[in-house]
Amino acid sequence: MGLHSKQDFSVSHLDPLLDILISVVGLMLVMVLFAVISARGKMITQDVSVTVFAPKLQNTSPEAQRSLYICQDGRISHLDIEAIMNRLTQLHDQSDNASEFYAKIKHRVFKDQYFSYTIKTFAMPDQLIRRRESAPVVVAEIVPIVRGESLHQLNSPKSKIAASLLNTNVSNAWVHFLVDANSIEVFRAARKIAKQSGAVVGWEPIKITYPRQECLIGCVTNGGGTVELIEGHQI
Questions:
Q1: Residue 46 neighbours by CB distance under 10 Å
Q2: Percentage of residues in the chain with pLDDT exceeding 90?
Q3: Rounded distance, CA 203 to CA 53, Å?
Q4: What is the DSSP letter of 224?
Q5: Could you give phi then psi for residue 218, rounded to 5 degrees?
Q6: Alpha-carbon Rg for the chain in angstroms
Q7: pLDDT tens-digit profile of 124-152?
Q8: Per-residue confidence at 20, pLDDT binned at 50, 70, 90?
Q9: Cα–Cα–Cα angle for 100, 101, 107, nearest 5°?
Q10: What residue spans of 50-183 are helical by DSSP H?
């Protein structure tokens, strides 16, 4: 067996060493470049102001008339709770006493263009003990009848929703939108129309399911907003 020459030794054993050195140097260059970019990004973002759009939360006047609109599945509907309250007020005025009034409204069904409202009365657990002293909670159980207006229909001159938004009583109005994730565009268009009337406008992102409960009488509200019924017993 012959011995390797000096030239053969250099060629056969230095190539792997060079590969290792090149890999290490390349990795170091990548790390340095990453550190420089990261530091530069931090320096840039220090001078950048970011605006986050969130629902506007504010207290409303107790006398404010709330106009509630539901934006769901790319369509908008008017949830006319005020009209239902007016009907209940008429029945109350026509009743001789509270017992007669609650008997009249129990399980009564009202309907408008978009929704059906079934009136139900509930008592909280403590009210069941002292039932004669406490009025029940009155709730409307709401289910949709027809789908609301699409964005195209809302922008039409024949839109009933647009007309109701423009005719809002500016002196005592609060327009509130319940908006799901698929209805941002129709909500924005409706909000733009509502602001033209000068009304106070608010909105709430929400996942809407039916039947939906809207508290009408005897519920504690926060600024006149929608209140989901807490645990109670139907009577």
A1: 7
A2: 31
A3: 12
A4: T
A5: 90, 5
A6: 33
A7: 655 444 455 567 888 899 999 988 999 99
A8: low
A9: 105
A10: 81-93, 98-105, 125-129, 151-154, 160-166
- Give the number of other CB atoms < 10 A from CB of residue 88: 20
CA dihedral 190, 191, 193, 196 (to 10 degrees): 170
pLDDT of residue 57 exceeding 50: no
Q: Which residues pair with 68 in a beta bridge?
A: 79, 176
* Other Cβ atoms within 10 Å of 32 Cβ, number: 10
Contact 191, 82 (CB under 8 A): no
Our CA angle for 88, 81, 107, nearest 5°, is 50
The DSSP 8-state label assigned to residue 145 in this structure reads S
| Rounded Cα gap, residues 193 and 166, in angstroms | 6
Instruction: Yes or no: say if 182 and 73 are a contact pair by the CB < 8 Å rule.
Output: yes
Q: Which helix (DSSP H) or strand (DSSP E) does residue 23 occupy?
A: helix 6-45
Supply the pLDDT for residue 62: 54
Contact predicate 117/110, CB 8 Å:
yes
Average pLDDT of the residues in 186-213: 88
The CA-to-CA distance between both ends of the chain, in Å, stands at 107
Phi, psi of 20 (to 5 degrees): -65, -45
Q: Which residue has the tokens 């008017």?
A: 78
The pTM is what? 0.63
* Residue 14 predicted with pLDDT over 70: no
Domain boundaries, given as residue ranges, for the chain = 1-50, 65-234
- At residue 30, the pLDDT reads 73
Sign of the Cα torsion 232, 101, 111, 178 reads negative
The C-alpha atoms of residue 230 and residue 123 are separated, in whole angstroms, by: 10
Does residue 209 surpass a pLDDT of 60?
Answer: yes
